[in-house]
Amino acid sequence: MLTFLIFFLLLFAAQLAYLQLARRYGIVDNPNARSSHSQQTIRGGGLVFVLAVILSWIAGYLSMWVSLAVVLVGAVSLADDMRGLPQWPRLAAHLIASLALVLEWQQQASFSLGWIPLILFLVIGWINLFNFMDGINGITVAYALVALGTFYWVPDLRDDRDWILLVGLSCLVFAWFNFRKKARVFAGDVGSVSMALILGYLMVKIILLTGNPWYLFFFSLYGVDAVLTLLIRLRRKENLFQPHRSHLYQFLANEKKLPHRLVSLSYAGLQLGINWLWMEGIGLDTFSWLPGLVFTAGLVGVYLLVRFWATPTEPLQQASKR
């Protein structure tokens, strides 16, 4: 316990130091028409997640391949936060990091090499999905804490509990500065991308160990919001590479004027309830198609109803041109 207290204090001191450096060198996020905030805010505070991974490796809690993968995407994403990068170095970093995780998974569970392209597609897709969902105060850290807490209690991941706890402590440190009415710091790409890789690693690992894909429902709220928003934007023939405010959580925070922290807690709380339902109610010991399909249909139906209520009557792309 003393070891983790020392780690917590180190992470807190590192976060304070980063705030000073970012303020000095102008690593800030400036609000624009697509933003959900109205004041200049320091970005890149999610660097503390990467530091937690480095400390986990130093302490012997985490393997070299996973640590290097997180450090790689974290370094490239931090450079993007500081001065902006073309898309290709970011995607290259995501691909290389995902390949490093494949090497780690191969040592933990045997699977056919034919699955590697699908795994890479899912991991890189998840990284970008998680990054897109980082748009209001507290949503990334609250959702990450729920995911990490759930993985901590999964029996098949008991060997990962020490480093999961350490990354969770880094989330608490970041939340102190971010989970506020007016956040002092945003996670930035370095935070959302590195956390996405951490969670993606744990998700693929538990699926490979158990053979049960329904563990994916631990990410179901982010999944349904991101995927259905993408489909809606495709239907509207929007440019998918341009920033937008079309996710349900953005409608709730911006158009319905709900407090950011309330929306963030709602996403995290609902996801926690879903995780509990699958772990303690439906059960994940065995795989069956029926409960997963029924749950998916119900979740999509509820999501569409809430989205219909929250969606502004005037298309956002028209309003933003005024």
Automatic annotation (TrEMBL):
CC terms in the record's Gene Ontology section: plasma membrane
Pfam families per record: Glycos_transf_4
This protein's UniProt keywords: Cell membrane, Magnesium, Membrane, Metal-binding, Transferase, Transmembrane, Transmembrane helix
Transmembrane segments: 46-76, 111-129, 136-155, 161-179, 186-208, 214-232, 262-278, 290-310
Membrane disposition: Multi-pass membrane protein
Needed co-factor(s): Mg(2+)
Sample GO molecular function, one term: phosphotransferase activity, for other substituted phosphate groups
Cellular localisation: Cell membrane
Any one biological process term the GO annotation gives: lipopolysaccharide biosynthetic process
Positions contributing to Mg(2+) binding: N131, D189
Stated name of the protein: UDP-N-acetylmuramyl pentapeptide phosphotransferase/UDP-N-acetylglucosamine-1-phosphate transferase
